[in-house]
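Task: sequence in, structure out. Protein: NitT/TauT family transport system substrate-binding protein.
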Amino acid sequence: MTRPRRAFIGVIAAALVTTVSGCGLLSGEDSSTPAGTGVEKAKIRLGIIPIVDVAPVHIAIQKGYFRDEGVEVELKAIQGGAAGIPGLVNGELDVTFGNWVSFLAAQAKGATDLKLVADGYRGKPEMFLVMAMPGSPIKTAQDLVGKKVAVNTRGNVAELAVRAAVKAKGVDANTVQFTEMAFPDMQPALQRNDIDAALLVEPFITRAQQQINAFTVVDTMTGDASELPIGGYATSAKFAAGNPKTIDAFRRALVKAQRDAGERREVESVVTGYAKVDAAAASMLHLGSYPSSIDVGRLKGVVSLMKANGMLTGDVDPATMLLAP
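Result:
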């Protein structure tokens, strides 16, 4: 085993260590607030991306879970997790889906005071892929040196995944030219040769495989990284303080849907709508897992991984960001 590979596994192993003391169970089920009563705000503006990570939100809407809790969710499109944070700060959003890396980095910088509401998605193999066009000279991680690789936003979990994965192959991640691009724009950009490769997630992976025969250069969620925390839901400390019953209602409904999403058919039933995936493609999607609680130990591991890959210079304790029921 090479030294870079050993180093990578060591960091990931630390990232995935779960201890009893480091596990925050934020299902919201223990809240004393009666379901559907007394919410401070009846409509929640939620930042969201058209990817499989957020399928539970659409399940909860479809099944009336939010309505049963006395809240309506208004969906607001964002490009990535980092893009949702300014919306929380300026009051355009009440809650946003985003990746943990962006949330933790923003908190460490003191840019805002975020509170973590619920977990959303964890990684599995084949659902976080660096892909290229057929015929491309890029075949391995080593071939990414000096090449332009698209991620949906800079400084997020997509960039971290690429950096950690190429580092494991002995490649200096600083030699990769990262460029920011929305997920829907990546496939056309590959076809125009505007970029050399892209970090794709579902449903864009399956679409690129079917429509342009894109192939995998690097699977960033394999081995010890297969359960890496990807993203979840956050709000501002200000909104949380002023609307505790509203947040509890939102969380209770979402957690029900997160559990439903453990059944693949539930995810397939909604992605055909919001993600515009046909039924045949939906059956082929590579899915991660949908946790019903936030695991503080894993998030502390993400902090360690960010530091190991030069994406965090300060410090942040995820435990202080948890929004308890």
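The chain has 13 helices and ten strands.
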